[in-house]
Design a protein that fits this description.
Shape: elongated
Number of domains: 1
CATH topology: Porin
Radius of gyration: 20 Å
Order of helices and strands: HEEEEEEEEE
Strand order of the largest sheet: 1-3-4-5-6-7-8-9
Strand content: over 45%
Structural class: mainly beta
Largest sheet: 8 strands, antiparallel, barrel
CATH architecture: Beta Barrel
Number of helices: 1
CATH class: Mainly Beta
């Protein structure tokens, strides 16, 4: 149900954007690459039993991928990406607790496909922009290290759902040159609706998903029509 509403909202916003903007005489197309650092956290409900003294901190990882961007209308376009992203979470005992058992790290490696509405503004050479839209992903690999922090093992098992989906929202700017392409910087927030673990009535978690914040730099080359 959440997926249906999210996709419907995306298409309503995109159609409204196209309807209100002037079509370009010469569409703009770009291909390129981007990458940077990601801070990821796991969102679990209900709280883990025995976790009163556990602090969950953001897991720092990397991300990067390929970008395709198309402008058919003034101020409004589409952007598709194929990305690799590291996400997960870290757990450790509060330093004031003398029974500290160390720390635990869970790192998950995803391949993701965002499909974004791209709204831009500014001059021909310097533009700000907003990205918004749905994304899907699949976990290729799981890694964990350290010491399990509780006797409750619900969050330590193998993922029940390697598939993921969510929404992405980003803001950034880029400098467009005549011959050297475009250089950009973007801050992006990703919110996952897909659960890591089963959310059946008999399962421990009712929800267990990811939330990520990333800062990326990118380079795009304009494909000019003859």
């Amino acid at each position: 149900m959440r997926a249906r509403y999210a996709i419907l909202l995306f298409w309503v916003l995109y159609a409204s954007c196209l309807y209100s903007q002037t079509r370009l005489d010469t569409p703009e197309m770009y291909i390129g690459i981007h990458g940077g650092a990601t801070a990821s956290a796991g969102m679990f409900s209900p709280k883990i039993n025995g976790a009163d003294n556990i602090i969950q901190s953001a897991l720092i990882g990397g991300n990067g991928g390929a970008v395709f961007r198309y402008y058919g209308h003034k101020y409004c376009g589409l952007q598709a990406e194929l990305n690799y992203m590291q996400r997960g979470w870290q757990e450790k005992y509060d330093a004031t607790d003398t029974t500290s058992a160390g720390s635990y790290t869970r790192r998950l490696h995803y391949i993701e496909l965002p499909f974004l509405m791209h709204i831009y503004f500014g001059s021909e050479s310097v533009r700000g922009y907003l990205n918004l839209g749905p994304e899907i992903g699949y976990c290729l690999k799981e890694q964990w290290s350290g010491t399990k922090q509780t006797t409750q093992t619900a969050q330590y098992g193998k993922l029940d759902n390697p598939f993921d989906w969510g929404i992405a929202a980003g803001a950034g700017m880029y400098v467009r040159t005549k011959k050297a392409g475009a250089f950009q910087l973007e801050l992006r927030f990703d919110f996952s609706f897909g659960d890591y673990f089963s959310n059946r009535k008999t399962a421990y978690f009712s929800s267990s998903h990811a939330m990520d914040l990333s800062l990326n730099i990118g380079y795009l080359w304009e494909i000019k029509s003859k």
